[in-house]
Amino acid sequence: xxxxxxxxxxxPRDGLEGIFGFMNYNVQGGGPITEVRRHILRRMYNEEFSVxxxxxxxxxxxxxGTPASIERFxxxxxxxxxxxNRFGNRTTPAWIExxxxxxxxxxxxxxxxxxxxxxxxxxxxxxx
Length: 128
Prior knowledge:
Layout: E1 2-4, H1 19-22, H2 34-46, E2 48-50, H3 58-62, H4 70-87, H5 93-113
């Protein structure tokens, strides 16, 4: 069964909310706990997205590719990396909490789905 993405869900720079927000993924304080966020991410990775005919957000939704595809994987990884690059220097406690959750979810996502596409995290060994 496909999730129909409403026309107001578009890229964050163009729309009011992107697919991550539409699917209820967030890292704000008081937001979903780790298990819920990861359930949402797993669902996003495996979900088929569709739009109504001639919907203005069709190009944006197409950027996610098909379920469990390399396009979907890379698009979701870019979401985390983009947010970490954009907001990673914020120092208030609320931002630090968001950044830590993005980092944890990014690593979990790559560890969970990366092998399917030839990706893995490189963990540096502690210096002796």
